[in-house]
Specification:
By secondary structure, the chain is mainly α. It is built from five helices and no strands. It folds into two domains: 6-47; 59-105. α1 (2-18) packs antiparallel against α2 and α3 crosses α4. It is rod-shaped and about 85 Å long.
Length: 109
Amino acid sequence: MVSFDKDKLAEQIESLKKLPQIKEVKALRQRLEKELGRFEEKKIIRVKPIVQSANLSRSSKLKKYHRYLRMIRDNFPNLKYSDIRKQFSERRKGQESDIPDVIWQNPSP
């Protein structure tokens, strides 16, 4: 991809050299030559992407899930944690639950 851009710039510079030397054409040609020089200076450095292990991503998602359910439990201390989990599962399926929708949307006390 870089070589394609580099070739395209070189072609544009050559076509501008054929045009009469007007101030604007000369400025454009100089700017394109600078860009072409930047392409030649750059070296391709491959950066290895940071891969997060499956266990870490699973752990962070479960932490969010359980933190969310604990916040709901704070609003309903009379319900067991397992009951809240069951109602959350039902709500995700689109069924009714005993806990109002307002609490599900913003469980902060």
